[in-house]
Amino acid sequence: METSKLKTADAPESKEAGELAATIAGGEPFTMVGRGALVDLGRMVRAVLTFDIPGDLVECGVWRGGASFLMADLLRRAEATDRKVWLFDSFEGLPPPRPVDGPAALAYVQNTDSPDYYDNCRASLEEVRRTAAELGVAAYTEVIKGWFEQTLPLFRERLGPIAILRIDGDWYSSVRCCLENLLDQVVEGGLVVVDDYYAFDGCRLAVHEFFSERQLTYALESVTGLPAD
Ligand SMILES: C[S@@+](CC[C@H](N)C(=O)[O-])C[C@H]1O[C@@H](n2cnc3c(N)ncnc32)[C@H](O)[C@@H]1O
Q1: What kind and span of H or E run contains 210?
Q2: Hey, which of 125, 166, 170 would you mutate to test ligand 1's pocket, going by the most ligand atoms within 8 Å of its Cβ?
Q3: DSSP assignment of 156-179, as one string?
Q4: 148 lies in which domain range?
Q5: CB of 148 within 8 A of CB of 171?
Q6: With 60 as the cut, is the pLDDT of residue 95 above it?
Q7: Is the pLDDT of residue 183 over 60?
Q8: Residue 107: which CATH number?
Q9: What is the distance in A from the centroid of ligand 1 to the CA of 93?
Q10: Which helix (H) or strand (E) holds 141?
Q11: Cα–Cα distance for residue pair 34/43, rounded to 1 Å
Q12: What pTM does this model have?
């Protein structure tokens, strides 16, 4: 876990570190993604901008939008007006898990009193739009409501090249759907984040099955240690 990498209260070592801390502080109240993973996400966006890796940034499974807002705020600070962040979500919460998703997924939906239940990850589209406006990143975001199975085939052409694809849909069918529809559009040098790889069996299965079917040999890298932060 890399939770102590960057604390907003620490004196920033540089202007860039200070900006990243401020960006994270803006998005953090609206995300369940841990601090270490947010820091890494920020660094990925910076790398895409620094090395001029073409394409938009996409998050599938945004909940209240915080991780997407972090990406959008870094675009805003860099005045990267030729790019935006696409936010895909049902805004109706998670679909029901299936046995393939594994015991942790099945336990999650039964444990509705858990502080990690978050009303089955249900968030409000209006709230996400409002927060984007309040954080000053509305012009850098495009929010698409609906089930991935319907929205991704419809929007993938409009999306074009993808520099960062952040998949955070938890279950097997959602993760597979994102890979099937969007992975081919991730450009050379682009980055793919699979948030739930260490959390849920079905997510891992979707990745391995898809890679195996397509004979993809991409190396997986844990950016936050085991389990994912
Ligand atoms: C764990 S939450 C995402 C967390 C978020 N990335 C954050 O920063 O806190 C999972 C999200 O995926 C969405 N989701 C999962 N499967 C989906 C599907 N098939 N279609 C649309 N949305 C889906 C849920 O609505 C939920 O908001």
Answers
A1: helix 201-213
A2: 170
A3: HHHH-SEEEEEE---SHHHHHHHH
A4: 3-222
A5: no
A6: yes
A7: yes
A8: 3.40.50.150
A9: 7
A10: strand 141-145
A11: 14
A12: 0.93
